[in-house]
Amino acid sequence: EVQLLESGGGLVQPGGSLRLSCAASGFNFNIHAMTWVRQAPGKGLEWVSTTSGNAFDTYYADSVKGRFTISRDNSKNTLYLQMNSLRAEDTAVYYCAKVRGYSYGQVWGFDSWGQGTLVTVSS
Amino acid sequence: DIVMTQSPLSLPVTPGEPASISCRSSQSLLNSNGNNYLDWYLQKPGQSPQLLIYWGSNRASGVPDRFSGSGSGTNFTLKISRMEAEDVGVYYCMQGLQTPYTFGQGTKLDI
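YS: structure for the whole thing
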């Protein structure tokens, strides 16, 4: 059974930093692209970032480019999101998800999701 | 960026009756390999999203066959043949053809 467990969320002041982690199990982690999707309170889903299985390819939404960094440790089956220069508009539940299929920047199916971790940016 | 537009945004449904949601993209999602890079997700109240359909019409593992996806290019439809109480929630379409991957606004189905 695929399991994804996010951690690292919390309250942070504007301009601060957080690192989210997503511990994966139940599948061959190092062959699957992984992604972060966020959801602001009461709002819809917003794609944040995706990394390929070998981490050679990384992609970011314009809203986080230059501030967030996605990475993975395939030896630990763990996905990360380093978030710097946080803003109030980054307040959201952050989900990690397994990508069913990935090829040259195209994805099909985020087929397993974690329970999410809440990031609140406020003074 | 590819803009995804869903309609309606809210849909009251009756158990046992069919339901249909439309999703339109600002650019064609049909790739040269013949696949449409269009997914459908359901977020039940208080839960994480779950994948229903990928490539426009392929049901994800474990998804009941009352859910079906159709369409190509820029126009897509998710159909529920017979609504069940457990199907309430917000439905999202998402394009995976190019970054930034973009979601529709969501369609809330409730009984």
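YS: worth flagging: The longest strand of chain B covers residues 19-25.
IM: good catch. Also The two ends of chain B are 34 Å apart (CA to CA).
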